[in-house]
TrEMBL record:
The keyword Transcription does not apply. It is a multi-pass membrane protein. Residues 589-612 are annotated as: Disordered. Gene3D superfamilies: ABC transporter type 1, transmembrane domain (1.20.1560.10), P-loop containing nucleotide triphosphate hydrolases (3.40.50.300). Residues 33-315 form the ABC transmembrane type-1 domain. One of its GO terms (cellular component) is plasma membrane. The keyword Thylakoid does not apply. It is found in: Cell membrane. This is ABC transporter ATP-binding protein. Keywords: ATP-binding, Cell membrane, Membrane, Nucleotide-binding, Transmembrane, Transmembrane helix, Transport. The chain crosses the membrane at residues 21-49, 69-90, 148-166, 172-190, 259-276, 282-299. InterPro entries: AAA+_ATPase (IPR003593), ABC1_TM_dom (IPR011527), ABC1_TM_sf (IPR036640), ABC_transporter-like_ATP-bd (IPR003439), ABC_transporter-like_CS (IPR017871), P-loop_NTPase (IPR027417), Type_1_exporter (IPR039421).
Amino acid sequence: MRRMPIQKPRKGSITAMYKRVFLHVRSHIGLLVGAVFCIVTVSALEFVIPQLTQYTIDHVIPGKQYSKLLQVGAGMLAAALLLGLFNYCSSRLMASVGQRSIYDLRGELYRHIQTLDIDFFDRNRTGDLMSRVTSDVGMLQQLISSGMLSIVTDSFTFILVAAYMLWIDWELTVIILATFPIMFIVTRYFSKRLRLSFKRVQETVGEVSNHLQDTLSSIRLIKWFSSEDYEGERFAVKSRDNMNANIGTVKLRAVYEPLIDLLSYAGLAAVLLFGAMRTMDGALTVGTIVMFMSYLRLLQNPVRSFSRTINTVQQSAAAYERIVEILDARPAVKDKPDAVVLGPIEGHIRFRNVDFAYHTGTPVLRQLNLDIPAGKMTALVGSSGAGKSTITHLMTRFYDPQQGTVTVDGIPLADVAADSLRSQMGIVSQDILLLNGTIRDNIAYGKRDATDEQIIAAAKAANAHDFIQSFPDGYNAQIGERGVKLSGGQKQRLSIARALLRDPRIIILDEATSSLDTESERAIQDALQQLLHGRTSLVIAHRLSTVRQADSIHVLDKGQVIESGSHESLLNLGGKYTQLYELQFPQDNKDNAAAGKPVAALASDRRRQQAP
Ligand SMILES: Nc1ncnc2c1ncn2[C@@H]1O[C@H](COP(=O)(O)OP(=O)(O)OP(=O)(O)O)[C@@H](O)[C@H]1O
């Protein structure tokens, strides 16, 4: 789903919105029935009060019935009290229905987002998604608690009052009702424009949220480069867009609301003029005119409050469209209905004639053939952007290739239940993903039922136990957002402990040590050896010293394997690998050249020296 340009409101989206909202409301039907009962009672009470006024003017006053005054007063007070009580109950019940339904919808949305594939997250920005789940869902909340309530109450009252007025004096009522179609047309005209305008507001909120998410999570970068002013200006642009979008909405409302007021007064003038004439002719009583005026207010309430409610409805419809854009998104990478749930795997991964491009369309892997045998260490080297990490993304089935197949133990990944595959894989990469929480939570993230003993054993094997113990809170120490309270090496050892705890069959090390200094690297090398032992492993590294122990090394260039073999055989080949090696170990080559030794012999020397 790309960032959408502002579109015309979709036809029927309000009906669709109510349908979907009702699906959620339906599960709280008991509360809804209670609310509807209260609403009907409120309408009935609003209908009764003007009757008392008319009775007082037409009967009590002319008949000088002093004794009745007390009864009328008490009746009025009782009606007002009941009105307050039922209004209170209906608001509370509807708010409860609204909150619960929105809770359900927000949960559905969050769960749905989690089912979407990585490609969806490549295309969408986190801040915008966050604003859809928070602010847009919040808009719908208003709709159920207040908006829907007043529409239902007012419409019910409208029908009741209009029918009664037609019965008393149909001619006068028809004159009054004549203003309503105009109100309706005006309302329709503005409602479409208001919805576009609200959608723009919500989109600008998404933009502001994106910017905040980007910059606040990279606050160190901003401070390093002293770009606070620059970011302040960029934020101001987004914030100004939001302000302008809000002003646009206010402008529309500023025209719309007085227009509706004007039409309401026209109705009042009609009652006064024609009502007075008919009273002077003796066809109506003064009490009836006063009652009509009170009813006129009740009649106009739906339209007036519709002008208020229309804001809520249109705001909600705009928000709903943004929510539906997510709910309608379907992952391209998803399990087949009859997907194979993998038991314990050997872990033999094969790429056969694989072509792959991200959504940008630029080919990344071209007719790639690659074998990652079970229980062996395979290494990938090659220049930056050659497609090494992309291979790991296909192995974990974050994406499907456009051509060719990737298999695990001979089964195409497309036929496999992704969870059953990923649960047998561990990844340690340069970008260490940690969540805010304790050290314990982070180590146990991939195995939440792990015991304390298992967590400590994994931490010990990852050489992390000692530094964890040095924290006052030990395993309960909070690591901060993305682990900001830890050093690079500490974070890396936590991620190794996390991978070890999961005991995966396949392990991927993607530049796992490249950001560490030599000392830290040495500290985690042992931990890595533990992790790799006896598993299928794919190691990606720029530093060739990291991969020379691999059973086989593949050199990747522009999405294709151009050389494969052991460290020695690749050095003997004198190709790309040798070039990379010479760049990284120039001294070795000089010594070698001086001694007249082939490069391969040098490599063997190094291995011999390293051998115990
Ligand atoms: N999510 C993505 N969306 C679009 N293009 C991407 C995405 N991830 C990577 N690419 C592009 O795919 C190509 C290969 O990227 P990849 O990360 O696989 O390279 P690499 O060999 O791992 O590089 P490095 O050694 O620098 O990590 C690059 O040109 C990169 O710009």
